[in-house]
Input
Amino acid sequence: MNTATILRQKTYLQDSVLDTLNKQMGVEARSSAIYLSMSAWCYAQGLRGCGEFFRKQAHEEREHMMKIFNYIVEAGALAVSPEVTNVERTFDDLRSIFVMALDQEIEITENFNKMTELCQKNRDFQTARFLQWYLDEQREEEWQARRCIEIFDLMNAKDALYDIDREIHNLKKKD
Output
């Protein structure tokens, strides 16, 4: 066995933590694909602001996946490229998309909480510290998803789709 092979086999990441990080990369990839699908649906409905909003969300989720990928690789472990299948392409209406986005973000927050707990249990404080960024990010992601639903509900849906579209678009400009 050459020195390069030995170096790649030595990592502080325990198998359980590494498996969880690789699974989360898959969750982030799927989330990105779902947001892109939501974006396409919105554009097809003439909701350009919402389409842009969800396009940016898709990009952010991919960045989140790549951040985990880079962390795994820099730790000397094997990052597994996720496969994404069965992404929804049709939606009932705009409000159902917003609710689905919130549910998705809550699920992701729960994942990061469980991952952090696993890291602390395994005394992998370095990875737990890395995950803190995601926990902070998720607070913002959930707030934003809730705000989309609030805006939709406050504006009386069908009578104000143009205004809703504009407000959702402006929500991303605040970043």
